Amino acid sequence: MSAAPPALAIFDCDGVLVDSESISNGVLAEMLGEQGLEMSLAEARARFQGLLLSEVLASAERLLGRPLPDGWLEDYVERRGAVFAAELRPVEGAGALVREVLSAGIPVCVASQGSLAKTARSLALTGLAELFGPHARFSAEQVPRGKPHPDLFLYAAASMGAAPADTVVVEDTPSGVTAARRADMAVYGLAADSDAAALSAAGAKVVGSLAELLEPLLGRL
């Protein structure tokens, strides 16, 4: 990691800015159980965290050995959204960290596997929307391939006018870390609610909390 401040800081959304992974995977485990595929929250997270919704659907159907009912994915999105509205919170320290980075004159953006609409709603529900304007929100739906491919991070950096070598990414999944490394970007892995060993193996410098990122992101490493 360079001691110079980056030209851009890219944050993943789910699990980095908003505490959504347990909610999303909890609803998923519940709905798969209703279809006869019993799965714990931990198992759901291990199998599905960081996947595109289309990949979640395909994986679940492989495990079941049959197609899920028509409209199942839409029902999942609706049920997840209802729980988000009641329970979604920002990850501890997210707002404070992003404000400090912005105050230092370092641009930020969010790059998520989720849709732009989902990201906008998550940021609004957690009071973080003011920190990431519409110009600073990016989704895998905008590029040919999602994470672990580098497309999303390269697109976000180019859109924000930053070179990959001058960009830092904050991720919480091995697939996201892999995408950042393939984009030739420095990457921190947030292990507050993720597998530190897996993040490290994927190539991240691992931190236990967002507060630990303040000094390195401001170039004080």
Please give a structural write-up:
There is one protein chain. With 221 residues, the chain is an alpha/beta fold. It folds into two domains: 8-19 and 89-217, HAD superfamily/HAD-like (Rossmann fold, 3-Layer(aba) Sandwich), CATH 3.40.50; 21-87, Putative phosphatase, domain 2 (DNA polymerase, domain 1, Orthogonal Bundle). 45% of the residues lie in helices and 11% in strands. It has helices spanning 21-34, 41-48, 53-64, 72-87, 94-103, 116-125, 151-160, 174-182, 196-202, 214-217; strands at 8-11, 108-112, 137-139, 167-171, 186-190, 205-207. It has a six-stranded parallel sheet, with helices on both faces. Strand 5 (186-190), helix 9 and strand 6 form a beta-alpha-beta unit. The N and C termini lie close together (8 Å). The mean pLDDT is 93.
Q: How many distinct helices?
A: 10
* CATH topology type of the largest domain: Rossmann fold
Task: State the fourth-level CATH superfamily of the largest domain.
Answer: HAD superfamily/HAD-like
Mean pLDDT: 93
The N- and C-terminal alpha carbons lie at a distance of 8 Å
Strand content: 5-15%
